Structure formats: structure tokens, C-alpha cells
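Collaboration report, partner site 2.

Our partner group contributed sequences for two proteins of shared interest, and the home lab folded both. The records are reproduced in the order in which they were received, starting with the first partner submission.
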Amino acid sequence: MMILGTKPFILNTQRFRKFATSDAIIYLSEFNKDSYCDSMFKRLGVHFPHRLNNAVDKRKAEFLTGRYCASKALQEIGVKNYTVSADEHRCPLWPEHVAGSISHSHNIAVAAVAFKTTIFGIGIDIEKILSAEMVNGIKEQVLFGHESGLLDIDYISNEIMVSLIFSIKESFFKAAYPSTGHYFGFDAVSIDYLDFTSNIFRLTLLQDLNKLLRKGATYAGKFTFLNGHVFSILTIQKQS
């Protein structure tokens, strides 16, 4: 049994510069869920929402660290003392002039923010690399059409490829959802381009989501790998 306090809760926090886009500020934190206690919210200056009252400590630790990263990123762009609350679907609510996104997986949380000057949506996602068993169970819900051919690339394992595509589509969903206000499936987009040298991807929208997100539109983003996880980020640019 681990005694609370033997390790710090937040193990490290850093601005994730090598992964940032020209639009976004990204913060990443590693945390030790075994050192979590409710008083950590006050110590880190994060509001404790009532809906977490009955949540398990793991969920509280993930939420806290994600909001802590969001607070650090917002402070970096000059937004201080802002509470990132959530809507009825648990989608984070950001300042009116800011787009943002939060993700967490196991002991890592990450948040990205950007001003809505040239963009109207941003999505970031982190996923632990899936096991072979999990890949076999979900690949038909993640890959569609020509995307199944990506599993034939010799130098990338199916576990990494499916984890990456899942993450990319999650990032697009997070970037698009605040504009659409409704859920849509992974079959709404198609991965057209993956470059494992420059870590760049491109996807195409296969259906109209609203007046701004139309079938045939293409979006580009970045991905990287760290400590057994895949990260992806995508911004939706405003049309000139």
C-alpha cells in the first residue's frame, strides 16, 4: 500500500514546444494517481465540480491534471483565473475568444489552446498504444474504405497504426464538435496522407457536418510518439 504524499501528485509539467503548431500553446503533465487526494484541486488552483463528487480517484486525478494543463496554457496567452467548466456532454467550455482541447491517458494529460483569430477549432488527443487484442476488437469501427490498406505498411505495426488513426479522428472530433454541437462517427473523415518522417497527416471530410464543415474539405495536423503513447493535434482554420 502506498502512503499518500510519498511521491508528488504532479511529477512534471512542461510546455510541449516540439509538438506545438504555429497557432497553439500546449502543456503536458505527468501525474501519479496514487498520490491523489481531493485537496489537490485547491493546491493546484482548479475548481472541483460537483459532478465529480461520486467519481473514483482515477477519474478525479485525470480531470484535475487536464484542467491544470489547460490553466497553464491559458495563462501563457494571458487568460488568468478562468475556470474551464463543461457542457452537458462533458465538452470543455472555453473563453469566447479562445479554442481549446484537453486529453488524458493513464498518467499523462495534455491541453492545447489558441486564439480564434485564424482558427475556430482545435483538437488534441493522446492514446496509449493499443494491444493486438484491442486492435482486433475495434479496427472495424476505426478504419473505413481504403484506410484498411494502411495496415499493410510493413514498417508500422497494426497496433501503432490503429492507435494513430483512432487518435487523429478523435482530434478532429474535438476540433469540430464545438461548431457542430452533435456527435458523428469515425466514418465522417478519411485519412488521406501519413508521413512518418515529418509526422504530418491529412484527412478529408466525407460528409457535411454544418455550413462551415463541408464534404470534401481537407485538414492537416501533426502527430508524435512519447512514452508508449501517440499524440495528435489538428486545427480547423477559418475560411478567408
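Second partner submission, folded after the first:
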Amino acid sequence: MAFTFERINYQEIRRMTFAATNIIVGLLILIYFGGSLVICNEDIPFCNKRLEELKNDVKDWRRKCLNGTVHVPNSSCCAAENEQNQHRMKMQTQLCFYKGPYPEPYLFINDDSGIHAIDLLTDDKTVVIPGLKKNYGMAIDKAEMKIYFRNGNSISRANFDGTSVEVFLQNVEVRKITIDWIGRKMIWVSQFPDGRVNVMYLDGKGKRVVTKAGFYNWDIAVDPTVG
């Protein structure tokens, strides 16, 4: 009698289990609300409870798994637990309909390839807007929950979760961008050798130049408390 053995793919089993859990919990949400799709996490009672449980688990993980200020797991078990917490955050985000890439707080980072978000609880990272060109500038409008960013020779904007991408201003060479969220203006520095500071309202009106060409501004900022 011959016996054959197959190696168990634990990673595939975990992936299938994770996907099945998403489907089951999603169905429970729709059943709970009578089949109506909710539009934000405040409408789902257990989302806050699940998030608080995750926060407590991450707090315990940091206490037992991090060596002082070094943010590196001190064992393979701790690394696996951290990965599991990140999977839980992904599930939380997918099922609870947050307006951003994660429940707050999170951090946006831009590089030449796109804009990424990092969850500041579990350090999970996700791509929000991929495939950008010459992405030298980025700014956020907290009031409208919009990201403004350079893409080639234009400035575009999108929701915090990466949806509703649209071109805001065309034919511009941008080095730095900042948002006056109180005065509802965007201010940007043109690429060298121009280097001028420009300003325009976020409704697309009132575009004007503030400084002369060749001023060589390296950066720009707005007082977030008064605009």
C-alpha cells in the first residue's frame, strides 16, 4: 500500500480564513441593519468596541514585545502577533466604512511612486494613491478630508481613502504645496528656476502670484491656527 503526503500551506489557509471571516462579518452587518448598507463607522455599534479591543491588545503587545524605545519586536512570536494585529486593523477598516484609510490617527507619506498611509496604532501600511509622476508636493485639507498632490505637470486632489481623484490645476510645475484650511486656499511654490509663490482658493478662483520669479523658496507653511 502506498501513501502520499502533501505539505500544508498554512499561509493559504490563513488567507482563506481571513477572507471567509470578512464575508461572514459583512453579512452580519447587512443582516443587523436590515440589508441597508451603512455609510460610516458611527452607524455600526460594534466597530468602536472592536477598535478598543485592538487598542488594548496593541498596548499589551508593546509592553511585552518592544525593548525600550526600539520599535522592533524582540521575538518571532511577537513579530507574528504584530502581523496579526495589522490583519485585524485591515479587517476593521474594510468592514467599518471609515472615511479615511484607517481609523484615526494615521500618517500620509508621499514618494515618487505614490501616496501611502501608515496606521499609527499597528504600523500597518497601505497604498492610497499609486502610480504618480514627479510627486514632489503633498498637502491635506482636514476640513474637506482631501489630499492635494502633484502628478506630473498638474495638481490633483482625492479623498483621504484615495477615491474621487480629480485634476485640480493643470500645466503647473510644483515644488511644494500647503493648504490654508481656514482661509480655504492652496499655496504652492513653483519649481526652479521660477521659484514663485502662488495662491488660489480651493474653489478654483482667485489665482495670483505672491512673489517674483527667481526668489528661490525652498519650503512654505501656513499657521494652522489662524490661516
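Feedback sent to the partner group on the second submission included the following. The helical segments are 10-32, 45-65, 76-96. The chain has two domains: 45-97, 106-212.
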